[in-house]
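Quick log. Single chain, no ligands specified.
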Amino acid sequence: MTSREQGPLDPPAQAPTMTDVAKLAGVSPMTVSRVMNGDAKVSEKTRNRVADAVAALSYVPNQAARRLAGSRSIRIGFLYSNPSAGYLSEFLVGLLNQAGPNNVQLVVEKCEADEHGVEQARRLIANGVDGLILPPPLCDSRQLIDLVTDAGTPTVTVACGQPDLRVSGVSIDDYAAAHAMACHLIALGHQRIGFVAGHPNQSASARRLAGFKAAIAEHHAQSAPELIVPGMFTYRSGLDAAEILLAQEPRPTAIFASNDDMAAAVVAIAHRLGLDVPGDLTVAGFDDTALATTIWPELTTVRQPITGMAEAALRSLVQQVRARHSGAPQAPEHALMDYALIRRQSDAAPRMRPPARIAKRSAR
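-> predicted structure:
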């Protein structure tokens, strides 16, 4: 949410309140408070709604009532730049789960992944944030990492394919995860597998592509340049990629997309072409966001623990900030979290016949 700069004669801007968040999320202020304090009894759907409202309003919780005796409140900046809605929701849930118990004041701001992101980070640092959390694609910005390193601001990157060793990071092994999914598809009997790559500016994209290629080579599956098409981690780019792959002759019997948004787009194009998923086409994704279980059929995907990674990032950053306040700063640490291959209804062994063509002939 953006607004014009406030002039000296303007009335003071009123910061959004917990009541505003509750109204936008369609819940009670008490429910918002429970989410902020990491109450596990609140449903995931409700936590996601509250997280979306917090992001939309750039809400900063009032920590005055939460301060522990002798405990200093910590201000953490969270910058994000146009991730998918599902990814952002899960990330914010993780941050909110840890903010209350750790006496953290979250400053949530959206920016662009270019010089604007650097300027936003510079402003946050100038305004006294104790640390920053950078998710994709900001975690891959060399300018941002240079800035926080030069400023001495504790920072944790999340889900970076090749984390910068100058700052702490939380990630998974994108190479191994993509390799595992490709091997799973090959084990089902697929030999001609299409791959939708991620955004070229994100290091995780290259790692996932490398893992896919390695599995194809190891198992002697079909390897052809036309089977790998570019994507941007967006639903729109997934639609374009699916049209390219499914226009091929012969077409792939399986398509592995680098995230769930693009995989969902592949399913949509397959349905539009009259293809059955998974009867005519197996589709697999990556991330296991909420979208994976809200489309039909539900997606086979790699589960990246987005909420857990955000929680771990905030805990790590709190430790670094407190160590810095005590005069004993910690060296950057990198945590590698577990991924999981989640099999649902969108994969199956390839058919031996092309039923879609038969259906087209009979329809004439």
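The chain has twelve helices and twelve strands.
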